[in-house]
Specification:
It is a single chain. This protein is mainly alpha-helical. The protein has a domain of about 60 residues: Multidrug-efflux Transporter Regulator, Chain: A, Domain 2, CATH 1.10.1660.10. Helices cover about 70% and strands about 5% of the residues. It has 5 helices and 3 strands, in the order βααββααα. It has a 3-stranded antiparallel β-sheet. β2 and β3 form a beta hairpin. α3 packs across α4 and α4 runs antiparallel to α5. The chain is elongated.
C-alpha cells in the first residue's frame, strides 16, 4: 500500500490481519487516534505506522503499556535517541526473561524425566510392565 491521506478500518484490518476489535482497543489505549467522517473511522499514515510498530512489539512479547511508553518517548524529548535506548533496554529485559523461562522449562523437564524414571523403576520392581 502506498502512502495516502487516510486508511479505513477495513483496509488496515486486512493489511495487518487483525480484527476491528483490536484496532478499536488500540484506539481506546491511546495508541492510535483516527478521525471520524460520520460513523467511519479514518486512520492517517502515522496511525498505520504505529499499528505496524505495535504489532511488531506484540510479536516480540512487549505489553501494550511497554509499547505505549516506547511510542510516546519517540514523540517527546529525548525523542528517537531515547526511544532507541529504551528499546535496547526492553529487548535486553525480554531476552533475560525468556532465558530464565528456558532455564525453568529445562529444570521442569529434568524433574519430569527423573520422576518418570523413578516410577518406571518402581513398576519394574513390582513386576509390572509399562
Amino acid at each position: 500500500m502506498t502512502a495516502r491521506e487516510y486508511y479505513t478500518i477495513t483496509e488496515l484490518t486486512r493489511e495487518f490481519g487483525i480484527s476491528t476489535r483490536t484496532l478499536r482497543f488500540y484506539e481506546d489505549e491511546g495508541l492510535v487516534a483516527p478521525f471520524r467522517r460520520g460513523r467511519t473511522r479514518l486512520y492517517r499514515p502515522g496511525d498505520r505506522h504505529v499499528i505496524r510498530q505495535v504489532l511488531r512489539g506484540r510479536r516480540l512479547g512487549f505489553t501494550v503499556d511497554e509499547i505505549r511508553e516506547i511510542i510516546h518517548m519517540y514523540k517527546e524529548p529525548p525523542g528517537e535517541v531515547g526511544q532507541l535506548k529504551l528499546m535496547v533496554k526492553r529487548i535486553e529485559e525480554k531476552r533475560e526473561m525468556l532465558r530464565q523461562k528456558r532455564r525453568d522449562l529445562e529444570d521442569t523437564l529434568a524433574d519430569l524425566d527423573q520422576a518418570e524414571e523413578s516410577i518406571v523403576e518402581r513398576l519394574a520392581e513390582l513386576g509390572v510392565m509399562r
